[in-house]
Specification:
With about 300 residues, this protein is of the alpha/beta class. It folds into 2 domains: about 5-225, P-loop containing nucleotide triphosphate hydrolases (Rossmann fold, 3-Layer(aba) Sandwich); about 230-309, Alpha-Beta Plaits, CATH 3.30.70. About 35% of the residues lie in helices and about 30% in strands. It has 10 helices and 14 strands. The chain has helices at about 45-55, 75-80, 95-105, 115-125, 140-150, 170-185, 195-200, 220-225, 275-280, 295-309; strands spanning about 5-15, 20-30, 35-40, 60-65, 70, 80-85, 155-160, 190, 205-210, 215-220, 230-235, 250-255, 260-265, 285-295. A 6-stranded mixed sheet has the order 6-7-8-3-9-10, with helices on both faces. Strand 7, helix 6 (about 170-185) and strand 8 form a beta-alpha-beta unit. Helix 3 packs parallel to helix 5 (about 140-150). The longest helix has 16 residues, at about 170-185.
Length: about 300
């Protein structure tokens, strides 16, 4: 296995009792020190895949290795390298934050290190809550406490399963910042999220899973460049009721009665913009403003899901 590949998944299959095929031959390599966003609709197999890597779910067939160790044969070794932040808020309600995070560290056989626990809590803006009982925390702060627990034993890998679901945008941005700092400290991060803008903001690569199969895994910027389109929004001085027949050959969408959006491939031999603007002038329409934008990762994600059905 290449030194740059930290997690290697080969032909992984998981069929649950009752016949549900959750994973159908998944192949995936996760690189050391990257942030990988694992995207997919509900029921796509994201959580099953994470649980299999963490050793919580036993695969039906196939193999998973973490830093060269098999997750089934070398469970203790691989599990000690992994921190997991689950979707559900399972916390010991009456314990205090500092005490609980320290206890979790001890469960992994790590020596007490109050200075390290203090650093984690400060990094996650939890230090002022260190003596608060977990049940007294807000939903967002409980999420932070889960991350602190997952980091307590200094893992090489951190799984974040929908870490910002149900938290407000300010808290979400704080978490993004914390995740980027973890990456800078050498932690490999795998993130599942419903918020595509989250993947767009912080991931290095994106892997899309649907119906238990990986559809695509690619560098985020390469994916957006290859599959993305650019959009030119054209605003006119006067309203109009329909697109002139002389412009029907262009890829135009009418937004309202005084603007159109033209979609084009920015990497093609010709964008067609010059010809379009000339034809707009010939049609007697007067321009007011032009704005260009890039297709979002969310649009690409939706297109990939449509194509995989």
């Amino acid at each position: 296995m290449s030194a740059d590949i930290l997690i290697k998944i080969d032909n992984l299959k998981k069929t649950f009792q009752g016949g549900l095929e959750a994973l159908k031959g998944v192949n995936l390599e996760i690189q050391r020190g990257e942030i990988l966003a694992l995207l997919g609709p509900n029921g796509a197999g994201k959580t099953t895949l994470i649980n299999a890597i963490c050793g919580i779910v036993l695969p039906t067939s196939g193999t998973i290795s973490v830093d060269g160790y098999d997750v089934v044969k070398d469970f203790r070794k691989t599990r000690s390298m992994i921190g997991l932040v689950p979707q559900e808020l399972h916390l010991e309600a009456f314990e205090k934050v500092f005490q609980n995070v320290s206890y979790t560290r001890g469960l992994y056989g790590k020596k007490k290190d109050p200075a390290y626990i203090e650093k984690i809590l400060k990094d996650l803006s939890l230090w002022d809550k260190k003596d608060s009982k977990l049940r007294e925390l807000s939903g967002g702060m409980k999420k932070r406490a889960l991350i602190a627990k997952a980091l307590s034993h200094e893992p090489k890998i951190l799984f974040l399963d929908e870490p910002t679901a149900g938290v407000d945008i300010n808290l979400r941005r704080d978490m993004w910042r914390a995740v980027k700092e973890l990456k800078e400290n050498g932690v490999t991060i795998i993130l599942t999220t419903h918020y595509i803008e989250e993947a767009e903001a912080i991931s290095d690569r994106v892997s899309v899973i649907n119906n238990g199969e990986i559809i695509i895994t690619d560098n985020k910027n390469d994916l957006m460049r290859k599959m993305g389109q650019k959009n030119l929004t054209i605003e006119f001085q006067e309203p109009f009721s329909q697109i002139p027949s002389t412009l029907e050959s262009y890829n135009l969408k009418m937004n309202n009665n005084n603007s159109l959006t033209y979609s084009y491939d920015s990497h093609g031999s010709s964008t067609g913009i010059t010809a379009l603007l000339q034809d707009i002038k010939s049609a007697g329409l007067k321009l007011k403003d032009l704005n260009s934008s890039q297709t979002s990762l969310e649009t690409i994600f939706e297109k990939l899901l449509e194509e995989s059905v």
